[in-house]
Amino acid sequence: PFSQVAYFSMEFGLSESLPIYSGGLGILAGDCLKTASDLGIPLLGIGLLWQQGYFRQSLDDCGRQIELYPYNDPTQMPVTPVRDAEGEWLRLELPFPGRTVILRAWQAQVGRVTLYLLDSNDPLNAPADRGITAELYGGGPENRLQQEICLGIGGWMLLRRLGIQPDICHLNEGHAALAILARAYSHMQDHGTSFPCALTATRAGNIFTTHTPVSAGFDRFPPELLTRYIAGAPGAFGVDVETILALGRENPEDTHEPFNMAWLAIHGSLIVNGVSRLHGAVSRHLFQSLFPRWPEDEVPVIHVTNGVHMPSWDSAEADALWTNHCGKARWLGDLKDIEADFRQTSDGDLWQLRSTARQQVILFARRRLQKQLAAAHAPDQDCENAKTALDPNTLTIGFARRFTAYKRPNMLLNDPDRLYRLLNNPHYPVQLLIAGKAHPKDDVGKVMIQQWTQFLQQHPDLAGRMVFIADYDMLVAEHLVQGVDLWINTPRRPWEASGTSGMKVLVNGGLNLSELDGWWAEAYEPETGWALGDRQEHDADLKWDQQEAQQLYRLLEEEVVPLFYQQRDANGCPCGWVAKIRESMSRLTPRFSSNRMLQEYVSTLYEPAARLLSARSERAIVEGICQWQHDIRQHWQSLHFGELDVQSDTDTHHFQVHVYLDDLDADAVAVQLFANGDGKQNPEIYEMTRGDALTGAINSYNYTCTVPAHSTVESFTPRIIPHREGCMVPMESNEILWYR
Ligand SMILES: *Cc1c(COP(=O)(O)O)cnc(C)c1O
């Protein structure tokens, strides 16, 4: 039912040979394209070709992060110029204040899926404009706005130039939300309608995926800045400043309120989702203020939990084992037999897989360590020792992530002596592989990187037990997730919206020990891994951090290490550990694959959105919706309830209430009976039936409803909400009137 999805994203992580990503958001976008290709889903990507991408990291001999910005030469990357019908290089002319910025267009082929990339590094542009697409997450607010104009508006213009008419625009994070305006503007031009009607017609095809669990994570721009760009480039935006600014505000009347890209994304789409079950709930809380007086549960944000593209993250050996049990086409179908089929694997095969994988990641870590030491002019002896660092039979723990406060990448360093004892246990040793970058402006993150080097320098005897691998990227990630026995993740709940790195170890038989946050909060079961935290939020409470660190040490000392080394069978295979691997692999791998994720996007977002969109293809219908929205706003203040009457017998309550609708068409609203399930059970909602008009009153009716009596009469209250077939409430009309 949908014909083409245009997937807009600021970053795409497809391979280290196309370094136009920074982290999880980009990898998700990349995995999404690969999966669309696998499954034959009509999807294309729209992004920017960053001249420098994200920085590359090296470490000096004190462990300080050094940031390098190599130039991404398009001729050296797997991209080709997009050509127009005449075979000429396609160039877009994007109106900017006082000038035109030229955007070059490139394409990369991801199997059957095309990724279009724009950049401003054209010699015809002024030098400053050539730098607009230089650095991912690099510049200040103005540069960021320029980049987002290129992505959202430039991206939409490119599709128009190519004659591509996507029915679905999927906005991966708010960065791309300006595409909403460009799409509506095109509709205005094509159909000669007003902007509100154009937005109403097109927003049905827009989907917004939000990724941040904190309001500070939303892009916000000062209104003056945005005004300068909108007023200065009417050819790009098409509508007046006030109309646009209002879409990015919670309170359109407040002229000081910054322009919030997430608000724009909500006001310009019909379906919004978070990226894990917990993040869905967190997002409903964050977006609550846009739906005043609505219960938080009914804030219209659903969730699709992220997944990863298993064929990209599995090792050759893991692939072979999976193929033996589940066939070559296992990630291409409905996934339903995978769990049962994979469970047939023998202990021996699983343990063999792990042993080979561990060996390989150790070889990789040694190579990288030798290079790093040589580059840092380390003593010859250290370089020599690096060749034999790490041990192939030792429990190998990995953790790699962005070094930033909320991820708590130094939790293991909370008690350095205890960590030392853990690593250096003479019978049951542990080794650590660590990687991660800190954002160039995140000084706290940089200090945390340095602390690892300092710990190592204080304990030179750990040189063979611990390696910090510099320049965490997809290649490093691939080696780590394939090789480590245990993946640790320690974010502060609920700040990890989903997290995907831990999903990448599943297919390879690595186990997870993670905070009950993001995906792990819904994935964890005692049979499949270990959980940190208590399912509560504790904010940035240092005392609590400390307590969790103790919990982490205790889990490692008392559960993880013994399970790995003890209960070995005659062949040296740790049966308890392998049993956990089998459960983790068979239960969780299909569930957290991007195949499951994308199929969920198709059935719960793309298909419904396409249906909503096609139901709005007629102008009269769209105008009807706009009129309805207008009428609701106009009359809402005058609606009111009259008398409420309840009669109960043993099984049922019979409710009857008088409703005065001012001049509003009675079909424009629904009257419901609502019972808040005292926090625990889900709220109950019943539609009330409109009965006779009240005699002696204008446009007022008797509404009735009979409900089962398992809740008390007092727990029910009637309410009026906007209603119209084919419209989303409260997304498109957020009024609500409660009886009490
Ligand atoms: C998977 C991946 C991420 C995302 O991982 P998180 O779980 O969000 O930490 C970041 N960077 C790279 C290089 C990755 O491969």
UniProtKB/TrEMBL annotation:
Gene Ontology BP term (one): carbohydrate metabolic process
Gene3D superfamilies the UniProt entry points to: Glycogen Phosphorylase B
A molecular function GO annotation: glycogen phosphorylase activity
Keywords: Pyridoxal phosphate
Modified residues (N6-(pyridoxal phosphate)lysine): K504
Pfam families assigned: Phosphorylase (PF00343)
InterPro entries tied to this protein: Agluc_phsphrylas, Glyco_trans_35, Glycogen/Maltodextrin_Phosph
SUPFAM superfamilies: UDP-Glycosyltransferase/glycogen phosphorylase (SSF53756)
Taxonomic superkingdom: Bacteria
Family: Belongs to the glycogen phosphorylase family.
NCBIfam families: more_P_ylases
PANTHER family assigned: GLYCOGEN PHOSPHORYLASE
Protein name, entry field: Alpha-glucan phosphorylase
Lineage: Bacteria, Pseudomonadati, Pseudomonadota, Acidithiobacillia, Acidithiobacillales
